[in-house]
Amino acid sequence: MAIKRGSKVDKSFSASAMTDLMFLLLIFMIIATTLINPNALKLELPKSSNQLKDKAITTVSIKHSGSHYEYYVEMEKMANIEGVERALKARLKEQEQPTVSLHCDKSVAVDEVVKVMNIAKDNNYRLILATQAK
User: Fold this and answer.
1) Residues in the chain with pLDDT values less than 50
2) Which residues, other chains included, contact 131 with Cβ-Cβ below 8 Å and sequence gap of 6+?
3) Per-residue DSSP letters for 8-73?
4) Does this model's pTM top 0.70?
5) Which helix (H) or strand (E) holds 128?
6) Which domains are seen in the chain, by residue range?
7) 58-65/68-73 β-pairing
8) CB-based contacts of 91: which residues, under 8 Å, 6+ apart?
9) How far is Cα 69 from Cα 30, in angstroms, rounded to an integer?
10) Which one, 4, 29, 34, 85, has the greatest CB density within 10 A?
11) CA nearest neighbour of 54 among 116, 119, 102
């Protein structure tokens, strides 16, 4: 009498689970790529050096004092950011390519710095952000 084995291994492969997995991965990738901003800027961070090529004609300082910011053009206190713009236009109206040096406290918000940068850009001023030497 011949002895027969009771279990046989099925050599077939079912790909239905694999297609479900690939479909879920495809949906995940589509959703993930739409959340990424394709217009992101590639920034080159500024390097600090001790030598200035341009001498600043005037300076703008922003100081954080409690709940508000104080703006100064040279040593003259301004009431608001519009006062800074008026003072810069009055001081720099005759210059060809005026350079403004921006001095900010460490605790000043980036929004306030950007406001002064926008003034410089709108009026074609060169802007130097003053940093502390190491």
Assistant:
1) 39-47
2) 48
3) --------HHHHHHHHHHHHHHHHHHHHS-TT----------S--SS--SEEEEEEEETTEEEEEE
4) no
5) strand 126-129
6) 58-129 (3.30.420.270)
7) antiparallel
8) 57, 58, 73
9) 45
10) 85
11) 102
Pull the structure tokens for residue 118: 């926008």
Report the amino acid identity of residue 89.
K
Structure token pair of residue 22: 């690939």
DSSP at 108: -
58 — alpha (psi -120 to 50), left (phi > 0) or beta? Answer: beta
Tens of pLDDT, residue by residue over 99-117, are 888 888 777 888 888 998 9
